[in-house]
Design a protein that fits this description.
There is one protein chain. 57% of the residues lie in helices and 11% in strands. It is α/β, with parallel strands linked by helices. Among the domains are: 207 residues, Rossmann fold; 82 residues, no CATH class. Helix 7 runs parallel beside helix 8. The longest helix has 48 residues. It binds NADP nicotinamide-adenine-dinucleotide phosphate (NAP).
């Protein structure tokens, strides 16, 4: 039984094991005449070993079959996506709008609109361009999805303007269909804050528009070499008029299986509800999400509320540090360390984003002022620690007296200590003794 196994085994290690086994078998055969019971035991052990070796082979074969099955499902999914490509409208064709439109164009038709004239850039990307001053022409492009990629600051006014035209468009379509109302486009935002756009869209968009809140946790710099492994946060917010409440599902672990969800009044709905409009809305949302999935994003379903809680202590401080370091005018040197290269990278990526984006993060992050205050305090604490060390270091000439950067309370404390020392020295001198 050693031959087929030895021939098929690819590694030296396994061949050695096999040789060891076969010589053991020969030994067993030689001694078989003298002890039949021993022989039975050794054969049993060997069988057991062979089953163990074979188990790994069998598992690898099963793994290969499953990998082929997964590849088939992915291909089928891709062709389903490509068979019925979405027409995606992008509102706001600035830095981020252009970045995502380029990828969307691989999967469907893209129509962009913005304040500035981006016709030339759009043409190069195979994207149709319509000026923002003509929203009717934009909506006449029969859009399945509208992605809002304008600045955080202009989001409210942009949605407010668009809502009027979306409402008129839905009335026109209902009139064309003899009074039957058809679902409006799926509206998606990509803002770096989440609770603010969620509320604005729920308040202002007509009820026939489904809503998806998203935040791609990357941008033109971090996603320049592809989106693989980058986080994409999303919340299915409204489907067929039902407002979802994912925070209830997050709290209720039984509901977090994504097959069901609670609406804002606590009613449980199923993802595959027996209702045409719901199924169609869900399908359109899934097709849009599949684009990010196909690009390799790490899909993170999360409520807007939870997103903002996490982002408060990560995103704003990253941008704040990048801006602070950037304002020091740091430049590469011929002897940069890896650490300094990371600092320059942080400065580069954060200052490449617009100040509007930074201000939007500050304005809509309830924690931003607190973060700034804590950072100021932390700088004082770190410098104060240095001064404490310096005080104990007899070999160092104290810098603190001329050092304007230490905190005022530390400076006061050090002045009092210094005055006391001088007074003590004077008193001892008066008494004619050494302190
Ligand atoms: P931004 O400065 O936040 O937004 C620029 C876009 O907003 C441009 O399309 C601009 O249009 C439009 N805009 C600005 N003021 C406007 C107004 N009053 N009315 C209508 N449109 C206005 O820079 P961005 O990096 O392109 O970001 C766009 C959105 O994507 C933001 O909401 C941001 O939070 C989000 N996002 C950005 C990143 C990133 O890495 N940059 C990552 C994830 C999400 P014009 O160019 O035509 O003036």
């Amino acid at each position: 039984y050693t031959t087929p196994f030895a021939m098929s085994s690819p590694t030296n290690k396994r061949n050695t094991e096999t040789t060891r086994l076969s010589s053991k078998t020969k030994q067993t055969k030689l001694s078989s005449s003298s002890n039949a019971e021993d022989d039975t035991t050794s054969a049993g052990e060997n069988d057991q070993r062979m089953i163990e070796f074979g188990k790994l082979e069998a598992l690898k074969r099963r793994e290969a079959v499953l990998a082929r099955l997964l590849a088939d499902v992915r291909n089928e999914k891709l062709s389903a996506l490509r068979d019925r490509p979405l027409t995606i409208g992008v509102v706001g064709f600035g830095r981020f709008g252009q970045f995502i439109a380029k990828t969307f164009a691989k999967y469907g038709r893209v129509v962009a609109t913005s304040r500035s004239d981006y016709t030339a850039i759009a043409n190069k990307m195979n994207v149709t361009y319509v000026p923002l001053s003509d929203p009717e022409a934009f909506l006449a492009e029969k859009l399945d999805v509208i992605v809002l990629a304008v600045s955080i600051l202009s989001f409210d006014s942009t949605v407010r303007d668009f809502a009027k035209y979306l409402k008129a468009d839905s009335e026109r379509r209902a009139k064309d269909m003899g009074g039957i109302s058809l679902p409006g486009p799926l509206v998606v935002d990509v803002l770096s804050v989440k609770e603010h756009p969620r509320q604005v869209m729920l308040d202002l968009l007509p009820p026939d528009c489904d809503i998806l809140c998203t935040h791609p946790m990357f941008g033109p710099d971090s996603g320049a070499n592809g989106w693989h492994g980058l986080n994409f946060v999303y919340e299915r917010t409204r489907i067929d008029g039902v407002i979802l409440d994912p925070s209830a599902a997050e709290a209720d672990k039984d509901d977090s299986d994504r097959e069901s969800f609670r609406d804002s009044v606590g009613q449980v709905h199923y993802v595959h509800e027996n209702n045409d409009a719901h199924v169609e809305g869900m399908d359109r949302m899934e097709r849009f999400l599949s684009i990010w999935e196909e690009e390799g994003c790490n899909m993170v379903p999360m409520s807007c509320h939870a997103h903002d809680d996490y982002a408060a202590n990560s995103q704003f401080i990253t941008h704040l540090m990048g801006r602070i370091l950037g304002s020091q005018g740091l430049k590469p040197t011929p002897i940069d360390t890896k650490g300094f290269e990371s600092v320059l990278k942080l400065v580069g990526t954060t200052t490449a984003d617009s100040f509007d984006l930074f201000y939007g993060l500050y304005k809509y992050n309830q924690n931003s002022e607190n973060i700034i205050a804590k950072l100021r305090g932390a700088l004082d604490d770190v410098v104060d620690n240095l001064v404490e060390f310096e005080k104990k270091d007899k070999s160092a000439a104290p810098k603190w007296a001329k050092n304007m950067t230490i905190s005022s309370h530390k400076k006061e404390e050090l002045c009092i200590e210094e005055e006391k020392k001088e007074q003590d020295e004077k008193s001892f001198a008066h008494l004619g003794v050494q302190p």
